[in-house]
Amino acid sequence: MLKIALIQTRTPATQAAALAHTGPLIREAAAAGAVLVITPECSNICQRDRSKLFADLAPLETDEAVVGLRAQAAELGVWLLIGSALVKREDGKAANRSILVSPDGAVSATYDKIHMFDVDLPTGERHRESAAYEPGDRAVVADAAGARLGLTICYDVRFPMLHASLARAGAQVLTCPAAFTRPTGEAHWEILLRARAIETGSFVLAAAQGGIHEDGRGTWGRSMAIAPWGEVLAIADHDEPCVVLADLDLDAVARARAAIPALANARPFAAP
Known about the structure:
Blueprint: E1 2-8, H1 15-31, E2 36-38, H2 50-56, H3 64-76, E3 79-88, E4 94-101, E5 107-112, E6 118-120, E7 126-128, E8 140-144, E9 147-151, H4 160-168, E10 173-175, H5 182-200, E11 203-206, E12 210-212, E13 218-220, E14 224-226, E15 232-235, E16 242-248, H6 251-259, H7 262-265
Parallel strand pairs: 1-2, 2-3, 9-10, 10-11
Antiparallel strand pairs: 1-16, 3-4, 4-5, 6-7, 8-9, 11-14, 12-13, 14-15
Helix pairs in contact: 1-3
């Protein structure tokens, strides 16, 4: 069994405060025996005022929260997936980046969010993620804690072809750290996550932001771990900061994919 922990946070608007907020929850997860710990999207800063955000963005190597979380992973001897950090790229642009940290504190893999959340919601909320971040252009699979992870971030969950590609590349566990809005979270969060698990015969691990943040945004919470057959293994049924623990039987992936071989049965076809 692989013991994992999902960290549900309400990340503040500065990197120093974010580290102080998240660190104790990671320590709690490690004390409970988790060997793979996953934090949500925007784990290093939640600031929707773009002028303030861009004034505070730093490269991955010097971001205060990222540096501190890497040190904590090394101290505790755990694999840590920083679900995403908002960082400055080498070319000066911004990236929404997932960062896999090994138990010695080294960066083992990174993934830049491919799909940008550019929407006008029925509630009147308007989001243009592409106005702030440069999208990634490659899918990423990486090994951690004896499992093969397929990395995604938040809005990526709405694109099944990405998840199928990760599963065909050997991913047993799909990670979906998120900061889902409350309207879309209530309507779609659990349904989408369970669908991605069932379609690919994979575990889906979704650590989420939750509650009303100091910058005024509202996020849905409800972090959850889902098995390859689609059942919810563990869930936070609220939006408060917490730790969600689950044990993964990685052999369940092969059993699910043998029972419903959808990945193997998929065929190319001409578009209509």
